[in-house]
Design a protein that fits this description.
mainly alpha; about 0% strand; globular
């Protein structure tokens, strides 16, 4: 069934997959809108800051131990066959379990050393267990994406979000304390893992392997990439951890409230690109021209997506903060307007990063992300004192922008035929700039301004002929 990657149906299937997964994601966001305000208002800004700190710690663990392993598994599934593929999947499962268990233990140890009180440590154990189960479930789902079975992926994604919202609402109604909210992902992860394992039966081995002769070639080939992805996750979330030590809980809460919005949006580029990645990996193996075309379109679409999300954050920041936390967190509005701009760089960096993964340029990714980590920590320490949460947002924006420029520069040096994508930057950013100016200067209610800005942005793309044909194809389908 994976031969669909070589057929003319692969492109339309990937487009439908992007639409399905993005639709499921936004539906999940819509569901979470019902629970996020309840959670923040139930806990209060300071306790929500504690909640966000623990979740940031364990999400950091999840990202570091994931280390791009799911992308590597998808590449191997798309390019290997038969017994070789099965052996690679078993080895990756073994690596996943070892890394995840070790990462969760380190996260709990950090909570103890940092002096978190007992309820937060108990909560960290629950959040870490949820991270472990979720990591295994994501790896087990590799055949669904490798065979472009996006309907099931979208359904699982939406089901997980729906269950999370239901449990949050139930706990708020039960007047639960902080700890139960941090354990939510454990039962949800177990349910999703069971369903996923049934869907991929006989296609994805569930028995892990740690035979050195099989594991070492995978580690040797991908360890630099794994380290690069781990560093990327660290620098993007280390800001909250630094703030929890260097500034007040209130400032951390403002940043965490803003980051809650950005965190929802930041996963969208990976979802969209991930739908096409099996095709990209197969094209790099078999058809160089097809790879170049696919890579350029992915870069252009990711840049457009990032600009659109950033525009929505800048114009709609007031709406988002009002819904999430109300008057208590109004200083987070300006934080979100700064932090939301990072989504432009994130979209481009994710797309170019997938290109370097396909070309196996791991060392470049490793050095770029190591530099980004240093820049992030230094800027956060410098700016968070005098500027508080806004300083932390500026540090995040500067770091992500520098990384995006670096990753794209390396990719263009390797594949100069991709330079054509640069022609899209001016019309897309110009359309967004006009939309932001009109949305903020008209003096109309924030929600109306957001709708007007979106109309202006789409009109600008249409006038400059930068509205992607893929979007029109998806809408027709």
């Amino acid at each position: 069934m994976s031969d669909v990657l070589d057929s003319p149906k692969a492109g339309p299937a990937a487009l439908r997959g992007s639409a399905l997964r993005s639709g499921a994601y936004f539906a999940g966001v819509a569901l979470s809108i019902a629970s996020a305000p309840l959670l923040i208002r139930h806990l209060g800004v300071e306790r929500f800051g504690q909640y966000a700190t623990v979740m940031a710690l364990m999400n950091l663990v999840a990202g570091v131990t994931e280390g791009g392993l799911n992308a590597v598994a998808l590449r191997e599934y798309a390019t290997l066959e038969g017994g070789t593929r099965r052996a690679a999947m078993r080895s990756l499962m073994g690596i996943r379990l070892v890394l995840s268990v070790a990462g969760v233990l380190v996260g709990i140890a950090f909570a103890l050393v940092a002096g978190y009180d007992s309820p937060l440590v108990v909560g960290a154990i629950g959040a870490g267990t949820g991270v472990l189960v979720q990591a295994v479930q994501m790896l087990v789902s590799t055949p669904l994406q490798g065979e472009l079975r996006f309907g099931w992926l979208a359904l699982l994604q939406l089901a997980g979000q729906a269950l999370s919202v239901a449990l949050i609402v139930a706990l708020v109604l039960a007047d639960a304390g902080l700890v139960p909210f941090l354990w939510i992902m454990v039962p949800i992860g177990l349910v999703l893992l069971a369903v996923t394992a049934w869907l991929v039966r006989r296609k994805m081995p569930l028995r892990p392997s740690l035979r050195w002769a099989q594991v070492w070639p995978l580690l040797r080939d991908t360890l630099p990439y794994t380290a690069a992805v781990a560093l990327n996750v660290v620098y993007f979330r280390v800001t909250i951890l630094v703030m929890s030590i260097e500034t007040s809980e209130l400032e951390t809460g403002y940043f965490a409230t803003s980051f809650r919005v950005v965190e929802v949006l930041i996963g969208i580029p990976a979802l969209v690109i991930g739908a096409a990645y099996p095709i990209l990996a197969r094209a790099e193996r078999d058809d160089d021209k097809r790879f170049a075309y696919a890579m350029r379109r992915i870069l252009e679409l990711s840049m457009l997506l990032g600009v659109w999300m950033a525009m929505c954050c800048v114009v709609g920041a007031q709406v988002a903060i009002d819904v999430l936390a109300g008057d208590e967190a109004q200083p987070a509005v300006s934080v979100l307007r700064i932090q939301g701009l990072t989504l432009v760089a994130t979209g481009v960096a994710v797309a170019a990063g997938y290109g370097l993964l396909t070309l196996r340029r791991y060392a470049a990714l490793l050095w770029l992300n190591a530099g980004a980590l240093v820049v992030s920590v230094v800027l956060t320490l410098i700016l968070v004192g005098p500027l508080g949460a806004e300083g932390a947002a500026i540090a995040t924006l500067a770091t992500e922008s520098a990384l995006a420029v670096g990753v794209v520069a390396v990719l263009l040096r390797l594949r100069p035929e991709l330079l054509g994508m640069l022609t899209s930057i001016a019309p897309v950013t110009g359309s967004a700039g006009a939309a932001i100016a009109i949305g903020l200067l008209l003096g109309i209610p924030s929600l109306v301004a957001l709708l007007v800005a979106n109309v202006v942005f789409v009109a600008g793309l249409a006038v400059t002929r930068r509205l992607p044909p893929e979007i029109r194809d998806v809408l027709r389908r």
